[in-house]
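Subject: design request, 191 residues
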């Protein structure tokens, strides 16, 4: 990830695998402030409405046997709410299948690792979901400071590896409700 120039911050979701196939990372965010609805970050939508961006996307063309993908929210920029992480075997470039994918989720300093095997033709596979909530000693979330649509200048900011979400981005969350494994689909992620 370091060699690929991946960004990090309050929340970082990364995948890695060991062949030339194109595996895609999808992150669905359902912010606490429901007025804005879910935000999806993937190869077709690199910057989410609730902030966050896909800053590394490898093997769109079969260029490496050690590819990675990365989605992150910069320090102080990740929203509170539910995050759902999914992977998809998008294109078979001739690598051995099933493709073993390692998924690493880093949120507020807590790291979780998962392994999942995917094959060509499989639907998008949910790997884990977690709730990011304020720490008990943190200030109460101010729902009036909401997530605006990400303006073009914010997209440029993302490209510079800061990747923010606007004025509602919160600091100091903790994780609640990790659940891993299982196949499944996330409505709205495609596939």
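Subject: RE: design request

Done. Sequence follows.
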């Amino acid at each position: 990830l370091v060699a690929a120039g991946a960004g990090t911050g309050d929340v970082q979701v990364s995948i890695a695998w060991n062949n030339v196939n194109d595996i895609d990372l999808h992150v669905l965010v359902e912010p606490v402030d429901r007025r804005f609805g879910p935000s999806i970050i993937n190869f077709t939508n690199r910057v989410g409405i609730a902030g966050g961006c896909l800053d590394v996307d490898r093997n769109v063309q079969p260029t490496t046997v050690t590819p990675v993908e990365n989605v992150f929210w910069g320090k102080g920029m990740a929203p509170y709410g539910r995050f759902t992480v999914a992977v998809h075997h998008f294109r078979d470039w001739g690598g051995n299948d099933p493709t073993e994918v390692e998924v690493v989720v880093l949120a507020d300093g807590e790291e979780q690792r998962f392994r999942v095997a995917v094959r060509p033709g499989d639907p998008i596979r949910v790997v884990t979901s977690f709730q990011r909530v304020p720490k008990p000693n943190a200030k109460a979330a101010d729902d009036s400071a909401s997530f605006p649509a990400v303006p073009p200048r914010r997209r440029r900011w993302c490209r510079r590896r800061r990747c923010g979400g606007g004025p509602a981005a919160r600091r100091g969350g903790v994780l609640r409700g990790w659940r891993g494994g299982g196949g499944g689909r996330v409505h709205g992620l495609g596939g």
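Strands lie at 11-16, 22-31, 39-41, 53-57, 68-73, 81-91, 99-107, 110-118, 125-134, 173-180.
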